[in-house]
Amino acid sequence: MTHDPVTPRGIPDATVARLPVYLRALSALADRGIASVSSEELATAAGVNSAKLRKDLSHLGSYGVRGVGYDVEFLVHQIGRELGLTQDWPVAIVGIGNLGHALAGYAGFASKGFRVVALFDVDSTVVGDVVAGLRVRPLADLAALAGTEQIAIGVVATPAANAQDVCDRLVAAGVRSVLNFAPCVLSVPDGVDVRKVDLSTELQILAFHEQRKAVRDLVGPLDELGARVAR
Amino acid sequence: MTHDPVTPRGIPDATVARLPVYLRALSALADRGIASVSSEELATAAGVNSAKLRKDLSHLGSYGVRGVGYDVEFLVHQIGRELGLTQDWPVAIVGIGNLGHALAGYAGFASKGFRVVALFDVDSTVVGDVVAGLRVRPLADLAALAGTEQIAIGVVATPAANAQDVCDRLVAAGVRSVLNFAPCVLSVPDGVDVRKVDLSTELQILAFHEQRKAVRDLVGPLDELGARVAR
DNA sequence: ACGACTTTGTGCGCACGTTCACAAGCGCCT
DNA sequence: AGGCGCTTGTGAACGTGCGCACAAAGTCGT
Ligand SMILES: NC(=O)c1ccc[n+]([C@@H]2O[C@H](COP(=O)([O-])OP(=O)(O)OC[C@H]3O[C@@H](n4cnc5c(N)ncnc54)[C@H](O)[C@@H]3O)[C@@H](O)[C@H]2O)c1
Ligand SMILES: NC(=O)c1ccc[n+]([C@@H]2O[C@H](COP(=O)([O-])OP(=O)(O)OC[C@H]3O[C@@H](n4cnc5c(N)ncnc54)[C@H](O)[C@@H]3O)[C@@H](O)[C@H]2O)c1
Q1: Which of A120, B115, B201, B213 could form a disulfide with A94 if both were Cys (CB 3.0 to 4.6 A apart)?
Q2: Residue A177 belongs to what H/E stretch?
Q3: What pairs with residue B26 in β-bridges?
Q4: A5 has pLDDT over 70
């Protein structure tokens, strides 16, 4: 199923999800010429508790120096290696509509070793266009391309109605990691990971808490129940 | 404080995060004319365990009928009410670049009561343009608009370098829910919720697992004794 | 009317994640 | 060299979430 039961020996999922945040904070520090950082400082920059940060980093190894902190550049390298950023990851985007255009042109991809190698669509008015320096290909070419160049990550940016079909084709082409922007559940065979980015869900979660806050404002200081902040 | 078996109105965060998924699955069922659904069917459609689904729904109340299942339309209404979708949520988008354009034109907003009421940017080549039927305003107008029409949710789609400043202005304008697309940590005062959508993080998490899978494929079949490779 | 069948709602044990608090370790200063 | 101050790494307590398994509660057929 979509669930990933085993994180082999090692790093908890919750930690893995935070490593990119640490990496970004560390990169920012490195850019500012800062060579060393304490867990307290880095935790603040990453928006987490310092104990959690230390425990997270301890899963990678004992890379800190007691009494001093962590070497920024070294830690950048270690986290990058753990996340697999030392190698290039070829990415294909399927569905070059509003969102697909934005994604194809997104510089944030390349900065971490993600290289957009192919764009696909079915709409004949889009196919053949050059977007962000790449020609949009017909979806039918996906199978052929898979033989030439292995695609590591497939991005689904089509309407929800077509997402499962697109996903199936990606999987058939050997893709084992899918990032899904369509608002639907994708089912994939074992061994394939799907992560979804769901704008609508995020907004609804915000709305829930917003409504909660409105109610709390009415009841106000009379209510002794603790305020909860979304995470 | 004693641990009461029945907490009045507290819905776990994990449940809140799944309600939009259930809602979407239910809406799809309703569109297909299906009036009633079992927890097993709905759970499959939503990609979760059926026991988890039932427990989630039980937090809203006892809306199911034993031996039968849940009334689809009724449940849509209840979940929508709980999430606050019965009311309109005015949304403002700041940063009308690649991503901001896509967001402004996204139909998925309106379908759940999220109404984009204002677009902001600082770039004079963008300000004044009409995007998705709305004129892009200078960011300076934000404070003025806040007096006229309350903005419930602010969407940050500017580069990371400007995100904190934009966020501060949104908060100053009375916004208490922020959806952040910029790859950075936003700090906000108590009472303000921030959720972030981070494409780069998602890709890095996928890369981590992809790398893990690659290693497992190499070692996998031989690994019976849990060989731990020293680094 | 009643029993067989279906499905909900939930108690319970377990695993995971978070936070506190502190000993162990390191550099620096005298 | 040795003490001092600082920071890491982690044991332990705590909280949250997950899923099994089952009794309770309803429907349906006869
Ligand atoms: N635009 C946004 O801001 C936004 C935000 C969040 C989620 N989404 C979701 O992302 C997806 C794309 O959104 P969009 O606004 O870009 O829509 P869009 O309609 O602008 O683009 C969809 C593109 O997918 C192509 N397509 C359709 N079927 C296809 C198929 N079978 N194979 C390949 N390509 C196919 C279409 O030709 C079109 O170019 C949708 O599921 C949408 O719900 C969009
Ligand atoms: N394009 C994508 O697919 C994508 C995906 C994920 C995340 N992001 C992130 O979303 C953000 C926007 O991405 P983009 O591709 O649209 O960038 P972009 O450069 O195309 O657009 C940014 C827009 O923000 C405006 N802006 C800059 N400073 C501002 C300020 N202080 N106030 C108001 N507006 C301001 C700019 O004028 C520009 O129009 C970035 O942080 C990016 O990292 C983008």
Answers
A1: A120
A2: strand A177-180
A3: none
A4: no
Give per-residue pLDDT as tens, A158-216. 999 999 999 999 999 999 999 999 999 999 999 999 999 999 999 999 999 999 998 77
Which DSSP letter does residue B9 get? S
User: Tokens 């700090």 belong to which residue?
Assistant: B187
- One-letter amino acid of B137: R
| DSSP H/E element including A92 | strand A89-94
Q: Which residues of B touch A170 (CB under 8 A)?
A: none
Pairwise CA distance, residues B228 & B219, whole Å:
10
Q: Is residue B114 less than 8 Å (CB to CB) from chain A?
A: yes
C-alpha torsion sign, points B166, B179, A113, A95: negative
SS3 (DSSP) at B151: coil
Residue that is written with structure tokens 């990851």 in the block: A89
pLDDT, mean of residues A146-151: 88
Strands laid side by side in the B134-138 sheet? B130-131, B134-138, B114-121, B89-94, B153-156, B177-180, B193-196
Q: How far apart are CA A18 and CA A143, in angstroms?
A: 34
| pLDDT recorded at residue B222 | 53
Residue of A108, A200, A210 lying closest to B183 (CB–CB): A108
Atom of ligand 2 nearest to the CA of B182: 41
Q: Cα(A216)–Cα(B6) distance, rounded to whole angstroms?
A: 20
- Is the Cβ atom of A154 under 6 angstroms away from ligand 1? no
The model's pTM is: 0.93
- The DSSP code for A150 is -
Q: A150 — contact with chain B (CB < 8 Å)?
A: no
Cα separation, B164 vs B181, in Å, equals 12
CB under 8 Å to B193, separation ≥6 — which residues?
Answer: A206, A209, A210, A229, A230, B176, B177, B178
Distance CA B173, CA A83 (A): 39
Q: What amino acid is encoded at B99 in this protein?
A: L
